[in-house]
């Protein structure tokens, strides 16, 4: 391998054609290249393809670029060149990025902002910053205020011509500041001002300034074809006018010479709206946008409004009417008519009368003020159930006022995307379009305002970026919301929490599923009916307080209503022992409790499932029952087959002969009913979970004792086997499950009834003979119907 010097390489490439000129810029040699004839292409190709080439075996070019002699450009593959040592000391030329200004302006305007109406928010924020700067500087330089009047913002519109004028009495701009701030895209005068203030030792910092990106002014071109900025700084004797158009790549600055357009101090923006956006010039539209976005700006905002004054004026009679009335009644003739007219006039009206309540000390704000603020901000007519006003400091600083509404939204809107949280940055409204960023969906009913000075917003201030700061804010807001709700539950007026639970109880239960981190805050808010509180719901705290000393767990049963839960065979033994049982009658209750798992170190236990431990096991007695009824259980299991997983002796029954318990990891009757109702239910899992049922028998019940005797004497007796089937079906219904064949169950019941009632109120007859008799009396008709049912039942058994 031979090395080729820089000068040799330059000599080779010096004669290349003009189409290779741009390529040589990547070579570190500063020697200019000259054109080369096409005849030399082959020679250069041959030379560069040899091992003498600086490109090496892979034709790697200088500075790590590969050169292709056929098309004359370098490929960007990194490789150690043998000429690297010679080229490393060569000087590099520095270039600045160039941009097509009109295209860049179009990207800024239409990419940063998704909503046109934010232009007014941005321009009002700029005006507020100008006033803040003047107020800040006037502390040390009082002469800046001069005699130019109050610090305010005024908005005037001409709906006919589509013109909006925004005037502030702020700091204004000099000619050079116009060039620097408006002529340089993305240069923020506010950010520059804040930087200079921080560098000043005795000035401190002003946290009220809003601007930070330097592009807010250009939002005016969202709706305007032309923008004129007339500004007068107290630091300058002259007033200057900046003018620019939406699609132009340049702007003009001139001195204002029209005496009628001179202003004592500040800035006047005149927007000439596009044809399609002239609707923004309507006074009603401007009033709405100002109240939505800039209602809490710290300076007064006035709008030029048309007013009407009702007046009564005298109107002379029409001469023609006077002749008709007659000339004899002179008194009536002299009387003049009174007419009511509306006299229109224009005046400045204060728009932002409502003050930012969250900036005040909570101790100084009354309940009436909180309620009034709630009604005005969220257009509510009912007072809230509760409110909380707080300030957080530390890593993240923000102020907030939260409310619990008195009425829940409709079912269609309950878990939908809401606009209940209004986000402000330095009192300027940013957005209320959130989908879980600040509050989880199950707390979407909470309303309120959040104001922070350092939120991680994007340039358009419309999108809240996902970050650690946002997660911290969300965590603190959720905690404060729970504290507020807990305050309602602990208040002396229990009706308030009853009202809250009726409206938002499902939301709180949904939190058990979605928010595992806050289970400890959610659990004390839950309310359920119980075996000892069938009329009024109780909390889990009250349940724990009522627990017996020997009770280890919190017992519950899920059902579709309180009555069925109260009469379920599962609760018999627990009621006898005076153990309270929670009745979960809402479809979401069971899932919520299963997600909680425990409360205050007490596990939740479903009494409708197998292996229920009530803490009173008697091993000797169980052993006796097992010896006496063990084979009977096997006999019943053989008859029922795959309908049940096993047959066991129950310790939970007192008056019922049997019960059908769900498997330890299977679905309860309530859960099975819910899963069947799902449109996209899994049939395979449904069949598997159904097979985990456990048939429990009560050894002390006469029916079970009779069946045990039947097994010992005649295990193949059809009547005994039919009794097992009927017993299973009865347990299926009483345990809350749905029978697979209701008609078959009805046939069994009718057959048993016919045998029990036959001959009780009528003379004794031979049932089988009467069945096939041709008589048509009522008794024979009933007997025939009963026998037909038995025949169907027998066929079903086969």
Question: Which terms would index this structure?
Answer:
ATP hydrolysis activity; eight-stranded mixed β-sheet; alpha+beta; 798 residues; 26 helices; Rossmann fold; Heat Shock Protein 90; transit peptide; 18% strand; chaperone; elongated
Description of the structure:
Strand 5 and strand 6 form a beta hairpin. The strands form five sheets. Strands 7-6-5-8-4-3-9-10 form an eight-stranded mixed sheet, with helices on one face. Strands 17-16-19-18-21-20 form a six-stranded mixed sheet. It has a five-stranded mixed sheet with strand order 11-12-15-13-14, with helices on both faces. The protein has 26 helices and 24 strands. Helix 12 packs antiparallel against helix 13, helix 13 crosses helix 18 and helix 24 crosses helix 26. It has 798 residues and is α+β, with helices and mostly antiparallel strands. Among the domains are: 203 residues, Heat Shock Protein 90, CATH 3.30.565.10; 134 residues, Ribosomal Protein S5, domain 2; 81 residues, Rossmann fold; 139 residues, Four Helix Bundle (Hemerythrin (Met), subunit A). GO terms for molecular function: ATP binding; ATP hydrolysis activity; ATP-dependent protein folding chaperone; unfolded protein binding. Belongs to the heat shock protein 90 family. Pfam families: HATPase_c, HSP90.
